Hints:
Layout: H1 6-10, H2 14-25, H3 35-42, H4 46-55, H5 61-78, H6 84-94, H7 97-112, E1 115-120, H8 127-136, E2 142-144, E3 160-165, H9 172-183, E4 187-192, H10 198-202, E5 205-208, H11 227-244
Parallel strand pairs: 1-2, 1-3, 3-4, 4-5
Amino acid sequence: MSLFEYEHIRGMRPGEFRVYNFIVSHMNRIPEMKIRQISEACGVSTTTVLRFCEKAGCEGFTELKYRIRRELSEDKRSAGFDSDPALQFIKNAEYDPEFSEKTVLAAEMCSRAAQIILCGDGGSSTLTRYGAYLFNSMGKSAFPAEQAYGTVCPGTDIKSTLIVLSIEGEKVETVSMINRYKSSGAFVISITNTEHCPAAEMSDINFSCYMPDMDSGAGCERKISQIPAVYILEVLTAGVQRRLR
């Protein structure tokens, strides 16, 4: 890690070097540790730990911990994935009355449906199979409407619910499928990244996740965390299960 430069290390005494070895080997733990805990773990005095902090270019142990936190945060961002937005979405959803109302209504419509069709595009398409598995496991007739599984045609004589999973919610194929199912009288639920897209506006119920883009490299398809979409599917199917008991 770039936290400690060669100039910092070469002038350390044996006791200070033991502190260095302990810190770089337990970097994730250091921000939560007290200076006495580190001194005891290294078998040195707290004064030695403070001398180490000084040689590392810090004014004290508090600044050292601050620099380590910052370094860990930068490493997390450079890895291309930050779980905080997804976890915050789940935390907010658990206490959001509007989210609860939507899931109650969506679960009711899914429980009444004779068949549930799940369609998706981009990075969300693979979740259609998982969603179908969840519904099928509780006795509902559910199908993923993706190319590998063929196309499920809507019928006016069958009460259907269409669940759309789409990041941008504006691809021609996705919008066309929503239009076909709505024309046949299907109830439409969408999970998109924004409420300001055709898929969301055409739906009876929309869940918007607002996840930041993940680093997917130049020329690659847009990616976001799918954790909120999985959470919504699992909350929805749990609600259906309660109604089928």
